């Protein structure tokens, strides 16, 4: 039986639940599609889904728990200070990946930081640093072992908080 | 979640209400996991992708232009993530020894028949997933994505047509041909057992 795109259009709308009057031939194709859909009925591991959701909830709450003041503090930094912050964050990040045995941070991250640290003095650069921090955090969330990720994240968060709260460390004065 | 609720939840999330993100995760997380699991046929990949997707949701929701098309927007991101992961896996294929440990420090060989399930049911499910994977792998990339998004992302054909910028009839024609091809492959697999 030959079926054309116009027929498929009607069949598709019918399968989507629209009230379309199908011909017998169109109905036969729709039935065949519905039969074939059963091929895709592979079982989902309920426990796996439960674990994945639990992990996603932890990710979400870690992400939403970030101190929102960070942006404000970052926006108030001068170019040199921002460069120092970026360098420190790379150090924190590197410490974490090395201590967790997950290999070095990506080359792109470091390259971006190097670019930013060389020219930071405007809001766009601040945004770039902020985006890069988000990206590093996302990378870390995905890479870390499940059992350790929450503790490591809290640890990282604590260090970042201290960084923001303590004000410019000595290294800034030197730069 | 009905459309009005969804709209209000998205608005609340955009306004910075943490609970709203939680509601979106509860509403769409299981479907996204199902989509990722079927697309990768691997729990760990699916779990990773769901975690990554959660972060993307928080960071990218501000870019969502609310016109009542949240699901296609969400699953377009999910489809891109799957595509990216599959491409990276092709570029960097890994030979894995069963005595090797996974990234969580568990021996891979120990992961078979775990969870307290009878080994037979685990094997049957695993075999079924392998058949599905083999059949999906025979499809051309766009058709594969359409099939996955339709049946595991639960998108309508109309939404798929909008997502892929082609007529609805073309989408269904591709899906129909894809399902037929899968039926042939899976029929052969069953016959060879």
UniProtKB/TrEMBL annotation, chain A:
What keyword terms does UniProt attach to this protein? Membrane, Transmembrane, Transmembrane helix
Record field: transmembrane: 72-95
Q: What is this protein called?
A: Uncharacterized protein
Q: From which organism does this entry originate?
A: marine sediment metagenome
Q: What is the lineage of its organism?
A: unclassified sequences, metagenomes, ecological metagenomes
TrEMBL record, chain B:
Q: Where is the signal peptide?
A: none
Q: Which UniProt keywords apply?
A: DNA-binding, Sigma factor, Transcription, Transcription regulation
UniProt-listed InterPro entries? RNA_pol_sigma-70-like, RNA_pol_sigma-70_dom, RNA_pol_sigma70_r2, RNA_pol_sigma70_r4_t2, RNA_pol_sigma_r2, RNA_pol_sigma_r3/r4-like, WH-like_DNA-bd_sf
A Gene Ontology molecular-function term? DNA binding
Question: Which organism is the protein's source?
Answer: marine sediment metagenome
The biological processes this protein is annotated with in GO are: DNA-templated transcription initiation
Cite the Pfam families for this sequence: Sigma70_r2, Sigma70_r4_2
Domain RNA polymerase sigma-70 region stretches: 24-90
Is the keyword Flavoprotein assigned to this protein? Answer: no
* Protein name in UniProt: RNA polymerase sigma-70 region 2 domain-containing protein
Domain RNA polymerase sigma factor 70 region 4 type residues, every copy: 132-182
Task: Report the sequence similarity comment from the record.
Answer: Belongs to the sigma-70 factor family. ECF subfamily.
User: Record's NCBIfam families?
Assistant: sigma70-ECF (TIGR02937)
Q: Does the keyword Transcription regulation apply?
A: yes
